[in-house]
Write a sequence for this structure.
C-alpha cells in the first residue's frame, strides 16, 4: 500500500554511466574501446546513451577490455 | 609474458550460480520465477545451465523478481 518501492536507477543507465566514467578515466575513446572489445565503435556510443540492451557477454567483453570486473560496470555509484 | 591473467569465472557462470542459489534460498521454483519475471520457465533453466546469453534487461527483471540487486546476480561469491 505505502510506496515501499524505491526509485532505482535502471541497469541500462548504470551501465551507461559507469562505462563512460571508467572509459574516460582511462583516457580511452569510444573508438578505441570498440577496438579493444571487438565491438563496433558506434555500439559503445549507443550504450553510453542508453540506446541498446546489451547481452551479458558483450558487457563482459567491455569489462575485460577495460580491465575491470563486470560488477564495476553495473554498480550503483554516488 | 608471465601468466598475469587470472582464471576467472565467466559472467554466464556467475549468473547461473547466483541465480540458482538465490532462487532456491527463497524457495522459488524455476516456474514460479518465470512467472514473477515474466520470462518463460524453460528460460530460467537455460540460464541456470549456462545455455543462454541473456540481455541486461532480462537480468534486471530476474533481479527485480527476486528482490535483489542486479550486482548480486553477477557477483563472485565464495
Amino acid at each position: 500500500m505505502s510506496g515501499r518501492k524505491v526509485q532505482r536507477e535502471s541497469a541500462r543507465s548504470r551501465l551507461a554511466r559507469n562505462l563512460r566514467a571508467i572509459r574516460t578515466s582511462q583516457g580511452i575513446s569510444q573508438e578505441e574501446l570498440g577496438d579493444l572489445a571487438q565491438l563496433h565503435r558506434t555500439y559503445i556510443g549507443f550504450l553510453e546513451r542508453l540506446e541498446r540492451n546489451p547481452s551479458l557477454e558483450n558487457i563482459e567483453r567491455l569489462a575485460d577490455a577495460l580491465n575491470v570486473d563486470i560488477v564495476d560496470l553495473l554498480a550503483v555509484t554516488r
